Amino acid sequence: NAGVTQTPKFRVLKTGQSMTLLCAQDMNHEYMYWYRQDPGMGLRLIHYSVGEGTTAKGEVPDGYNVSRLKKQNFLLGLESAAPSQTSVYFCASSYWASGTNTGELFFGEGSRLTVL
Amino acid sequence: QQQVKQSPQSLIVQKGGISIINCAYENTAFDYFPWYQQFPGKGPALLIAIRPDVSEKKEGRFTISFNKSAKQFSLHIMDSQPGDSATYFCAASMRKTSYDKVIFGPGTSLSVIP
Predict the structure, then answer these.
(1) Number of Cβ atoms within 10 Å of the Cβ of A97
(2) Helix, strand or coil, per DSSP, at residue A109
(3) Surface of B (35-94) touching A: CB under 8 A
(4) Is B21 on the interface with A (CB under 8 A)?
(5) What does the alpha-carbon distance between residue B52 and residue A32 come to, in Å, rounded to a whole number?
(6) Is the pLDDT of residue B25 over 70?
(7) A103 with B93: Cβ contact below 8 A
(8) How confident is the model at residue A96 (pLDDT cuts 50, 70, 90)?
(9) Phi, psi of A61 (to 5 degrees)
(10) Which residue among A6, A18, B71, B106 is the one 20 to 30 A from B5 at the CA level?
(11) To the nearest whole number, what is the mean pLDDT of chain B?
């Protein structure tokens, strides 16, 4: 059982270049998320999706776009990369537990992006 | 107020000692408080969690203490081991209309030395 898989694991971009990070989950989870992790700031939510074909903005959405064309996949795009987007990006998924908040997220291993 | 505060930023503990990490929140709408453990090069993974109607939860060497009136909670790691060396994130979660919103603290880097 692979869980949550992210590709690529490492990427170096020049300012202004574009790229897409791919996240795939095999747990049939409805909800998927993209976080960025920066030193001393914890994990901040970029965008999330509550189901196939739906996306919504999180805490720090500027400069990013997302798409969820299939339930198992969630793509994060950077149209014009900036040095401030140098970070480690984590994809996560979760399920909806009827009647109770579980708050449990299942994370991938991360994608380290450097923008020069 | 959606912020979750966490301290200390880093912690060094002798093997066999007790590691203590503290967190605080403001919003009383939070109803689930998980702790995540992250090893270098890996994603965070759920370690232990508590709901606000319980004052303490213990799983093996890991214990969460919860003070609802003070809006504070803490993680205690008893008999700390070098294998516990990792970054620990506390979090607070609330149920929204369509998903469970999770807010993370900034993290604590724990080093357990032999």
Answers:
(1) 12
(2) coil
(3) 36, 41-46, 49, 89, 91, 93-94
(4) no
(5) 26
(6) yes
(7) yes
(8) confident
(9) -85, -15
(10) A6
(11) 94
In DSSP terms, A36 is beta-bridged to: A44, A89
Chain B: closest CA distance from residue A15 (Å): 25
B5 close contact with A: CB closer than 8 A: no
In this structure, what token pair is assigned to residue A85?
Answer: 């987007």
pLDDT over threshold 80, residue A27? yes
- Cα separation, A61 vs A106, in Å, equals 21
DSSP classification of residue B16: T
Question: What is the CB-side half-sphere exposure of residue A28 using CA atoms within 13 A?
Answer: 0
Residues B88-106 have a mean pLDDT of: 88
Q: Give DSSP secondary structure letters for A3-61.
A: -EEEE-SEEEE-TT--EEEEEEESS--SEEEEEEEETTTEEEEEEEEEETTEEEE-SS-
Query: What whole-number percentage of chain A has pLDDT above 70?
Result: 95
Residue type, B39: F
Give every CB contact of residue B24 below 8 A, 6+ residues apart in sequence.
B4, B5, B70, B71, B72, B73
- Asked if B34's CB is within 8 angstroms of A103's CB, the reply is yes
Instruction: Please answer whether residues A35 and A43 qualify as being in contact, where contact means their C-beta atoms are separated by less than 8 angstroms.
Output: yes
Query: Does position A72 have pLDDT exceeding 90, yes or no?
Result: yes
Q: Which of A42, A43, A107 sits opposite B45 (nearest CB)?
A: A107
Q: Is A46 on the interface with B (CB under 8 A)?
A: no
